[in-house]
Amino acid sequence: xxxxxxxxxxxxxxxxxxxxxxxxxxxxxxxxxxxxxxxxxxxxxxxxxxxxxxxxxxxxxxxxxxxxxxxxxxxxxxxxxxxxxxxxxxxxxxxxxxxxxxxxxxxxxxxxxxxxxxxxxxxxxxxxxxxxxxxxxxxxxxxxxxxxxxxxxxxxxxxxxxxxxxxxxxxxxxxxxxxxxxxxxxxxxxxxxxxxxxxxxxxxxxxxxxxxxxxxxxxxxxxxxxxxxxxxxxxxxxxxxxxxxxxxxxxxxxxxxxxxxxxxxxxxxxxxxxxxxxxxxxxxxxxxxxxxxxxxxxxxxxxxxxxxxxxxxxxxxxxxxxxxxxxxxxxxxxxxxxxxxxxxxxxxxxxxxxxxxxxxxxxxxxxxxxxxxxxxxxxxxxxxxxxxxxxxxxxxxxxxxxxxxxxxxxxxxxxxxxxxxxxxxxxxxxxxxxxxxxxxxxxxxxxxxxxxxxxxxxxxxxxxxxxxxxxxxxxxxxxxxxxxxxxxxxxxxxxxxxxxxxxxxxxxxxxxxxxxxxxxxxxxxxxxxxxxxxxxxxxxxxxxxxxxxxxxxxxxxxxxxxxxxxxxxxxxxxxxxxxxxxxxxxxxxxxxxxxxxxxxxxxxxxxxxxxxxxxxxxxxxxxxxxxxxxxxxxxxxxxxxxxxxxxx
Length: 648
Description:
The chain is rod-shaped, with a radius of gyration of 55 Å. It contains 18 helices and 19 strands. A six-stranded mixed sheet has the order 1-3-2-6-5-4, sandwiched between helices. Strands 8-7-12-11-10-9 form a six-stranded antiparallel sheet, with helices on both faces. A hairpin with a 2-residue loop joins strand 16 and strand 17. Helix 1 runs parallel beside helix 4 (64-82) and helix 4 (64-82) runs antiparallel to helix 5. By secondary structure, it is of the alpha+beta class.
């Protein structure tokens, strides 16, 4: 578009005046006369022949009137100049008849030519009108460039699109001035590249008055053999409405993308073939990744129905049912296994996506991670159970104290009677000490007693041996062997012997219950260090069935038990609270198969358990009646789940 001149239309149909048309007829006739005179000997037999061209030229250029005039002038010139006697009018009958025949014939020919010309002009005009209407409907204009004549022609619609008055002379600068200021450099660069042979198909903005429009321009340029621009033809289309829709759609998609990216729930989307094509960031966080797979491979998503614990089949997922059956499923509670092996609980929903005819063209799934919520609900249920158990235990404990006082009184009388052998006196001492421990537990239950006793120094080996002695009868009844490994005699610690005995009692009792007849429970006590300070490690190992992987992280939760008939589910919970309360730690290793099958519990206890300020300010609860106000059990101690090591 480098021309310096322009026209208002691509076609022109000029209308000449009558004088001009007559002049054309006269000139054509004179030219034919001159030719005939120069060739008079040759044209003597056909004097009218050279004038055929004059009449045709006149009628084609000047129309029917010019053709008639040329016909009359031709007849006159032939009779005057070409028929004897020359240069005079002396018509004979033959020449007269020839002249009349010539005039009639060429008058008819002129009429036919004019009629055909009118029809052709009408057809051309109709086609041009159709073209203009088509360009108007399509909001598409056209232009033609003649680089040699430095001429640029625009269609009417092109003027209309750019808002320039029809017929206004155009230059490339005029066009460029209509381009949006921010797009001029882009248009200029692309046009210069097109003039060197590159394609020209661009979209840019123009300014029409106070309006901003979008146009698409295409061009096909013509070059000579040396690469010089000869001209070209192009089109310009008003795409404002389409572009506004595209921009609005892009803005809508951007908003939707922002919403999907920030939603706390996971969103999955499939196409009509059932292939997952989209997963938002929340979905990938919930599942620790994403699989873009078809519906027949949904078995790769592993899950279990929360209520029944049954696996979710591939065709049972809400997304699969929505796609295959058109079913809408909302808030189905499912426990899933993420792609990194972690287990979570989600609300899973699926909705089919339909077109206007009701056909399913995809499906949408929504996942909400409710793991924390469900755990909180379970913790609340456990807390309510603990509270109920505590209230019940407190009532029972109140009733226990009366007969317990009687028992302690009888023990005192027996001890002071002086008629018992030494072994019986020792046994009564043990009974008195244990009855005192029972009384402490009962008193703590009723008064929420704060442990403020002073820690005492004692030999931990003797207390552990005492606990093992208590369990000899139970072990013998179950045909279980209790072995001691690496046993010492002189290790003393500062702490609370009753609490140590309670921890060992819980662990040894569980170990005896876990092994089958003929099994073994190994106990080891040895010195170690904890945080750089002296400590004692108490290890109880069994060769029982081991703890399944699905239950390992529940062992230290209150009320969790595998002893359905007689277990309370509080022993390990209380044990862990005691060890944590001392500042110690407890670990478990377990295996359910192989030569290392069994379970090992290892409790590390500081050699000096003092009455710290923190200890005095917390209710120290160790009994089943007191757990309802104790600290909540955690899994912080379960950091090692290796197979147990055999204790020799």
